[in-house]
Amino acid sequence: MASYDFTNGSIEGQMVPRRAAAEENEVFIRRNIVDFSKQNLTTSDDAKVLEIEEGLIVKSVYGRIITADSGGGTIDFGKTASGHEWGDNQAVATQGAIIGGTRSLQYYDADGYVYVTGVATASITTLKLEVLAECVKALDKI
Predict the structure, then answer these.
(1) Per DSSP, what are the bridge partners of residue 74?
(2) Shortest CA distance to 17 belongs to which of 54, 66, 50?
(3) Quick check: 39 and 124 in contact, CB under 8 A?
(4) Tens of pLDDT along 13-71?
(5) Residue 117 · residue 43 · CB < 8 Å
(6) Contact assessment for residue 56 and residue 138, using Cβ atoms and an 8 Å cutoff
(7) Rounded distance between C-alpha atoms, residue 104 and residue 63, angstroms
(8) Calpha distance 77→121 (Å, rounded)
(9) Lowest mean pLDDT among 89-93, 110-114, 117-121
(10) Residues 77-100: pLDDT tens digits?
(11) Which of 22, 31, 111, 137 is the most exposed place for a label (fewest CB within 10 A)?
(12) What is the pTM of this model?
């Protein structure tokens, strides 16, 4: 099992810069485009795909498949490398499909990440994915 970081520029990732500060009563999106043709994801590998700062509540995470993967692999979306709070065993073979999106409120009491983990027997080798997290800042952290 290997771990990769698509949030720090070391792998082809297009992290959308954070806004300066979250506003009270505002729902906002953290997003990134990750290209697994630049770094393949094999079974049980995990990848950090979004940075989430302390004090955020992540309501849901979902992905839009830009380029489908032809290998038959599937992925999870989770708060940890072994988590699947927002999507479990998601197929990635259909271009344009929206995957994940399970509503699971997760509070980040420290800086952290949203992870994608490879879960099926096939590697993820051609997937290009836009990952989006719907967030709100905890009131006591504003």
Answers:
(1) 91
(2) 50
(3) no
(4) 556 566 556 666 788 888 899 999 989 998 889 999 999 999 999 999 999 999 999 88
(5) no
(6) yes
(7) 15
(8) 17
(9) 117-121
(10) 999 999 999 999 999 999 999 999
(11) 111
(12) 0.89
CATH number of 3-141: 2.60.120
DSSP 3-state assignment of 88? strand
Sorted by sequence, the CB contacts under 8 Å of residue 59 that are 6+ apart come out as: 27, 103, 105, 134, 135, 136
The SS3 assignment for 10 reads coil
The answer to whether the CB of 134 falls within 8 A of the CB of 27 is: yes
Return the pLDDT at 97. 97
In which band, very low, low, confident or very high, does the pLDDT at 141 lie, cut at 50, 70 and 90? confident
Please state, as a whole number, how many other Cβ atoms lie within 10 Å of the Cβ of residue 70. 12
Query: Residue 82 corresponds to which amino acid?
Result: S
